[in-house]
Specification:
This protein is mainly β and 160 residues long. It has strands at residues 12-18, 51-52, 58-64, 76-83, 90-93, 99-100, 105-106, 109-110, 116-118, 122-123, 131-137, 146-154. The chain is built from no helices and twelve strands.
């Protein structure tokens, strides 16, 4: 069970992102200075500053190709955490939390490509920073130049 106030859900972040996203560089000094672009519509990627982790202990990540397109299984989502405990706050790579977009195979049978893929909840080292972003790197799709990325935070290790 969550500890969110009544009527308030878990934090989430939406970003319409290019298939290879620029590495994050903006260091927001407070939530009010963070860019939260949302879904600007197909063909309109906007770089944002990721999810404010707050008290989140885990995140679930979803990536979606444009309507009538599929994720072809190439590329990855690179994890970045804003580390504000450094003398000069900076976005820091966390390759141990990167997500491969290769479709898994079980007993030699590959998963069928789909428009949307959700990854299991990942425990996040909150002490490392207060913002997190997954940046697409060489993502392959059947058509289009961008994808929709959604990150949702949970106050437990696993969403329930």
């Amino acid at each position: 069970m969550g500890t969110y106030p009544a009527g308030v859900g878990p934090p989430y972040y939406l970003e319409r992102s290019a298939l290879t996203r620029a590495n994050p560089t903006n260091v927001p000094t407070s939530p009010s200075t963070a860019k939260l672009p949302g879904d600007q519509g197909v063909g309109s990627p906007v770089v944002g500053d990721g999810i404010d982790l707050g008290q989140s202990k885990a995140v679930a990540v979803t990536i979606q190709a444009n309507p009538n397109q599929t994720l072809s299984g190439g590329g990855a989502l690179w994890c970045w955490i804003l580390d504000q405990s450094l003398p000069t706050p900076a976005w820091t790579r966390v390759p141990e939390l990167d997500l491969s977009l290769a479709w898994p195979a079980t007993n030699g049978v590959s998963a069928t490509v789909q428009q949307t893929r959700m990854f299991p909840a990942l425990r996040i080292p909150v002490r490392g920073g207060n913002r997190l972003i997954y940046a697409p790197q060489s993502v392959t799709v059947s058509g289009g130049t961008d994808v929709l990325l959604k990150i949702i935070g949970f106050d437990g290790q696993y969403p329930s």
